Amino acid sequence: YRMQETKERQLMPPVDGVQGQCLLWKVTILFYLPLRQIRYLPDAIINAVMRMRKMKDKGTLVVISGFSGAGKGTVSKALVEKFGYSLSVSATTRQPREGEQDGREYYFKSEDDFLRLIDYNGFIEYAQYVDHYYGTPRKFVEDELEAGHVVILEIEVQGAMKIKEQYPDAILLFITAPSIEVLKNRLIGRGTETAEVVEKRMRRAAEEAESIEQYEFIVSNEEGKLEDCMNTIHSIIESESCRITKRQEFVASLREGLEEYKENIDKDK
Ligand code: 5GP
């Protein structure tokens, strides 16, 4: 009987006297204190989620313009590959060039379809460039910005100005060849345009040069130095995205977090 009692005591020690008080303290320490913290847990989770949602500042819109033949297409694609930026695919009424695919370089549209898309508010901007329409589809850009991505628009000057009106935080970059001679040779060397079109594009370049001051940055795309050009653009994008004015929500979330921390300390006192 004694052995049985001892076994029971070992399994279920008595809860009276000094031993009982000890147990009470242990229970308090083990359960009550963590429970006090747990009381704040749902709030803490909700606040953390809210803060994370707020911290996710909107993405960055980067407009890359430049004279035809400056190499902005090559630079934009390389930026996408190297840094994972999103590239908006425009719609156009011009004919595809050899090797161009619908949905990859452009969405090739008839003029009627393009005009219908304008009516449906399908573009965030559109412009006419050397006899054809070009436009930036709205949905892709809005979705990508909402997801917090860097979105590149490779568009001409009129379109860039319309973007700046709607998105004042957009970064406007102008890419150029190191000289006009190089520019002309690149356009001719490309062999995709007739002499007449090359001339039209050079004339258009002269018009576009009038608007260079509307841009914030100018980057020269030198022969054989694509990597340098890309890195320069990448560092511009990086430093612009650290501007305090662009991180307002992040700053607000830091302040909110600190306020909450102070409140919790005061509650516990
Ligand atoms: P290309 O015919 O050489 O592909 O393009 C002619 C010009 O149209 C280039 O300067 C190019 O940047 C511009 N462009 C391409 N897509 C758009 C667009 O969606 N909107 C505007 N405004 N210009 C565009």
Structure notes:
- This protein is an alpha/beta fold and 269 residues long.
- Helix content is 56%, strand content 16%.
- The protein has eleven helices and nine strands.
- It has helices spanning 2-11, 17-39, 41-55, 72-83, 111-119, 138-146, 157-166, 180-190, 195-209, 226-240, 248-268, and strands spanning 60-66, 86-87, 90-92, 106-108, 123-129, 132-137, 150-154, 171-176, 217-220.
- Strand 5 (123-129) and strand 6 form a beta hairpin.
- It is elongated and about 100 Å long.
- Mean pLDDT is 85; it is low at 1-18.
- Guanosine-5'-monophosphate binds next to strand 5, strand 6 and helix 7.
Structure, briefly:
The protein is of the alpha/beta class.
Shape: elongated
The distinct ligands, each listed once, are: guanosine-5'-monophosphate
The rounded distance between the terminal residues' Cα atoms is: 52 Å
- Indicate the low-confidence ranges by residue numbers: 1-18
Mean pLDDT: 85
Structural class: alpha/beta
Oligomer: single chain
Helical coverage, percent range: 55-70%
User: Sheet with the most strands?
Assistant: 5 strands, parallel
Element-by-element helix/strand order: HHHEHEEEHEEHEHEHHEHH
Beta fraction of the residues? 15-25%
Major β-sheet strand ordering: 2-7-1-8-9
Number of helices: 11
Please provide the count of β strands: 9
Radius of gyration: 31 Å
Structure characteristics:
binds guanosine-5'-monophosphate; 269 residues; five-stranded parallel β-sheet; elongated; alpha/beta; single chain; four-stranded mixed β-sheet
Layout of strands and helices, then pairs:
Blueprint: H1 2-11, H2 17-39, H3 41-55, E1 60-66, H4 72-83, E2 86-87, E3 90-92, E4 106-108, H5 111-119, E5 123-129, E6 132-137, H6 138-146, E7 150-154, H7 157-166, E8 171-176, H8 180-190, H9 195-209, E9 217-220, H10 226-240, H11 248-268
Parallel strand pairs: 1-7, 1-8, 2-7, 3-4, 8-9
Antiparallel strand pairs: 3-6, 5-6
The structure holds guanosine-5'-monophosphate.
